[in-house]
Every structure is written in C-alpha cells, then in structure tokens.
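ok here's the first one, seq then struct tokens
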Amino acid sequence: MKTKEKRKTGFQEFWKRRKKNAAYSNLRFRILIQTSAIVLLTFLIIFTIYRRFWFGRVGDWIVQFLQDVFRLGREDALNIYQYGLRENSSLIIFGAVAACFLLLFWFCLSWFIRYFDEIDAGLDQLVQGDNRQIVLSPEMAPMEQKLNVLRQTLEKRELEARLAEERKNNLVMYLAHDIRTPLTSVIGYLSLLEEAPDMPAEQKAKYVHITLEKANRLEQLINEFFEITRYNIQEIVLEKEKIDLYYMLMQMIEEFYPLLEEKGNQAALHSDENVMVYGDSVKLARVFHNILKNAIAYSYRDTTIDIFVEEAPPDKISIRFQNRGKTIPKEKLAAIFDKFYRMDEARSSNTGGAGLGLAIAKEIVARHGGRIFAESEKEQVVFWVELPGKLGEQERQQ
C-alpha cells in the first residue's frame, strides 16, 4: 500500500516538474535561438575575415606594419609573418573565434538580463504596495502570473488584517464603554447599601441581587478583554488522542443544561454511541462549546437544538448543529468566522462576545485537517464541522 502511494506521489511530482518546465518553453526556445544565432554569426565573421583578408590585404598590412614600426627589411618581416603568424593560424583563429563569441555574447546578455530587471521591478512594485497589474515580457508569462497572484494574495491579506484590526479597535472601544455601565451600577448600589445600613431586608436583597448581576456582567466583559489578548499571542498546538465523540457531546449537553433550561430549549444528540475521532480533546471541546453556545444564544425559545453525527465514507466524520432561529443573511454568514466579528450589532446585548469564538473554532478545525461552515435559510441555522475519520486513525498509527 505504501509502495503504491510512493509511486503515485513520485508520478505526481514528475508531472509537476514537466508542467513547470513546459511553462518556460518559450523562454528556453528564445535562448536557444539567440545562442545559435551568436555561434553562427561568430563563425560567419571569422570565416569572412579569414577568406578575404588573411591571405591578401591583412597579410600585406601586417608585413608593412612590421617594417614601419620595427624598421625591419621586407624579407625579415615576411619571415616573421610566415613563421610567427601563418604557422600558428589555428591558434589565432581559435582565439579570434572565442573573442568574437564572448563579445557578441556580452551584448546578448543585456537582452537576457532585462528579464531579471523586469522581475526586480515587479518585486519592487509588490514591496511598495503598488496595486497595478504587473506586466512582464511574453516569455515570462508564468512568472508574471505568479507575481500577480502573489500581489492579489497580499492585497487580500492586507485588507483582511486592516478590517480585523478595525473590528478589534471598535470592539475594544465598545467594551471599554460597556464596562463603565455595570461598574457604575455596582459602585452605586454598594454605596446605597453602605449609606443605609438599616435598609429593609427585602430592599437590601433586591439591591444585592442587582449588584451581583452587574458584577457578573463586568466579569464577562473583562474576560472578553483577556480573550482578545490571548488570541493575539496564542499558538494552537494540538495534542492528539483517540476521542469518544458521542461521550464528549453528551457531556457538553449536560453542562449546558442550566442555560438550555433557562430559555426552555432542549438539545438532542443523534449519533451512534461508538463514533470515535482522532484529535485534541480539549481543542475540539472548545469548538463544540462555542458552536453550542451560539446556537443557544440565537435560538428561539422553547425549541430543540439537534446535533447529528454521521460517518461519511471513506474518511470523514460530519457533526451538524441545527437550531431554529432568525435567518442569518448571506453577507453575515460569510463573515461569522472572521476575527472580532459579532452577530449581535447591539452593543448592550449580553449575548455578544468578543467575536473570537467561531474564529478560533475555525482555526482549530483547520489544524485538524477539517473544515467548518454554516448555512441558514427559512429560520433555520446549521453549523457543520467535518473532521478526518479513517485518515486521522492512520496518522495516529504512523
């Protein structure tokens, strides 16, 4: 089995290399033509000089040059020309060919180097954040495509980072504003209790209860601040093990029983009792906790939240959280997994958190090699979590 997989991988790598090499076939052909032209032109120049001048005018010119410069007799000059130059003509011709070739090649390098200049200019454009289309020579079309894909990716990441930072700043500002309200109430009611020690017991109990509610809300807001800080510094590291998925979800439903009871909701698990998954139990519990918490927060009262667990052959496990609630618009549905995004636009609502729960859930599921997404229509909201099944088990065994 492993041998087949290795062969398949090797075959895929071979075709990737073939495809990559074919991408620059135009450039290789251009270089081949250019080099062939240089070689041909070199030999043509040397052959022309050799045929027309070596035995005629050039020979007479060399003899005359030796006579005039070194004041030699014609016979001595002819002997030097004959024995010094003519008998070593092959070496001289070879040197002339090499020199001519290098000279022509030098001029042709300026043509080839312009490709590097174009790539360098394109990289400078990326570094400077220039959003214009990068244009290279036709022979460099594959490189042009990759640089433009990189440009678009950087633009997208920059936009996402800017929007996330903007959402975070707005969230921090709103949270800071929201903290003042319960804090003011806590101080106000405690001051009343201190100033009126003989206050009737019934009224005192009422003020204590209100103060406790405001203090709990204050704690929730402070925890949201810590959640933002942890998200910025944390690195999700998985410690995988074999997990009884049915038991984990049943235990989570029991933990949420008081919150479900408060709204008159119920949670029903539809799953085989022997469903196992390979992953980080703590991290996956956080994923399901965040989804179930959102489902309860945005469900209609006195409705049932259904949790379906299905094994999809050959290697996938699907967990579906389905509840009745207000239909989520498509534009919001695409953004609910973004950092610092809150479904709850009313800042005073107690249901909205720091907008990190689903973003962290998405990252955890992605680290497990799965995916998470949501659907909503006709007052029904469905969250899907897909995790590797048998493939995860194979990973564990390896």
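and now the second one, same deal
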Amino acid sequence: MKSTLIIFGLLYSMFAYSQAPETNLPFDSLWIWEEASVYFEFGESQLSTESTSILADLQKQFAHRPEVNYLIQAHTDAIGSDAANIRLSVDRAQEVAAWLRAQGIDSTHIRIESFGESRPQASNDTETGRQYNRRASIRVQELRSMFWMEGKVVDLGTGVGLPAEVLIRSREKLDSTTTNDMGVFRIPVPNNTVIGIEAYAPGYFFGNEMLKTDHRKPLDFQIKLPRVKVGEVIPLHHFYFVGDQDILLPRSEPELYRLLRFMQINPDLPIEIAGHINLPDQEPVGLSTWNYLLSVRRAKRIYNYLVAQGIHPDRLSYIGFGNWNMRFPNASTEQQQEMNRRVEIRVPVKGEILSSQDTLMPDADFLKRRLQEWKD
C-alpha cells in the first residue's frame, strides 16, 4: 500500500499574515488519514486478489473509526471513446464502493468520483503507463475542527524575533512552516489536541513546547531559542533507553530528529555527545566495568544515528561518563534517577582534544580532564 505524507489540513487555504482573521473561531478542514490505489486489467472493473488485499489492509486500519469517510476516484487509460471510458471508470468506482459496503461501511460515508481518461498519472503511450492509469484511488478522510495559531520564535537573550523553521507534531499528524522576518509564524492546528511545537534557527539550539490546543484560549506565545555557545552543555531530555541497554525506545524518535535537524541547519558546527548512567550512592564506576561501558554505548548510539543520516563523522565525537557526573548523586525519586540517566551534547572549544572514536574506553586521567572541561 502506498501511503501519502500525513500533514495537517491538506486542503485548507493559506493566507498571508496581513489576511489573518480577527477572530480565533474554529473551522472545518479536511484531514486526510491515508490513501491507497488499486489497479485493473484492460477494460475490466473486477477487483483482483491483490486489490482486495490492499483494500482489506486499508479498511482494517480504520475499522474502529466509523466516522471517517472514503473518497473513491476512478480512472481509465486512453484506449476507447471518452463516453466508454467514463462508464468504465464509474463501474470501477462502484466495484470498490460495493466492496467497502460489504465490510459494513455505511453508504453515507462513501463518495465516488469518475474521471475516465481525463486524469492520467502516467503516459498512455506505453503499456506500463496505461496500466498505471487503470486505477482507483481510495482516500480515507475526515472533517476536523481547526483554528489559526500564532506564535513567535525569539532569541532567548535579546527577545529579538528570528527567521526559523517551525514544526508542529501530534500523535497522528505533521506540518511545518517558517517565520516571517519578525520571527512570527501562523499555522492552522487541530482543536482540542495535544501538539508539540519545535523551532530551529541557524546559530541556535532547538526549542520545543508541548501543549493542548483550545480555540477558546488563543495560542499566542513565544519559543525562546538559546544561542549556540562554545563549551555550553545542552541536555537532550527525551532520549529513553531500554533498561540496562543502549537500545532507544520508539518514543525517542522525535528527539533524534530534533538533534539531526539542528546539525543540518548548522552545517559547520561540531558537537561532542556524552552518555551518563544512574548509580546513586555508589563510588564512581571503573572504566573497565559494564556500567561504564554502557554510558559510552549510549552516547555512541546517538553518534551512529547521526552518521547514518549523513552527518560527517569529523563533526562528531562521543564519550561516556558512567556515574561520575550524576545530577543527583543521592537520587531517591524516579524523576531524579531519570535525570541521571541522560545524554548531553556540547560544542567543543577549537583545538580541544576530543574523545577517541576508535575505542570505547579512554584512560582515567583523560576522562577526568574531559569531565572537568564539561563542568567548566
């Protein structure tokens, strides 16, 4: 099944800042969940075994959502008369609709459009192209309540607006926009939904906020980005590992993307990645111990991800600090222990001797010097 990119308000009309409505009233926008296509033999409208399998997979995803609607758009190749191809595309759309009704989908949630040969997606000059044109696309969609949200991305120190990239996430959708010259952005968001807002600007560390949207409380807020400073340590708060392993949990994926996007927007910036573990009320672990090496492996996991995504290894280094630099040496709560079990990044000073990328275990004196540099 070929999925489309899931985005907010795919069919809404965008307005310039000067055209912003005076009120913050919600409006309905078409929310596209999924799209798939099935293909037909020449002159035929019957569904193939492969096509019914595709439809079954699609219907299964939304069996628990009876409120969604199914838009069927049917097409043909260019062989034959216009009138005959219109009739054939109607038959193909009806065949798909009948299959959906047989699965218990109410007719009021099914709409068909038939285009004959008028909307080819490939050239009709070849058999391969004609095969692609003998199709029906099925779009699963829903009207959702949206409203316009405004915000501003600013320099943390000066409050001056920044040209920035803004990303809006929910559990289901993704959208992005950019600020204007004053750092202002405006974007439609779904009402009554938890969303994450991320901002990226060259020369700045990224920022992100989580909130629940409510059109009755207009969202007009600022995302404050700290300027990149040499030697400054930045904690990465949302890396979650499997217990006692260096395997990242799926909920860490947004934080991985944030770090990657930060490196892409700042293409000349080097960073060092440090891993830490939680062993409160204990002496510093030895460099040959399993616990120390776990902190290194966790840092290297992030390093490997960035390299795999195209960040040059010369811009990256990694190191582990075991339990040598816990935020809470006597941690007693889960929150304190989680803050000990962390990954951080730091922009090194020019000419600084960084951790080795060839070995997991530096010597103790080197590690103490590196740790002091991180603390300073």
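notes on #2: Residues 1-23 have pLDDT under 50 and may be disordered. Helices lie at 49-61, 82-102, 127-133, 253-265, 290-308, 334-340, 364-375.
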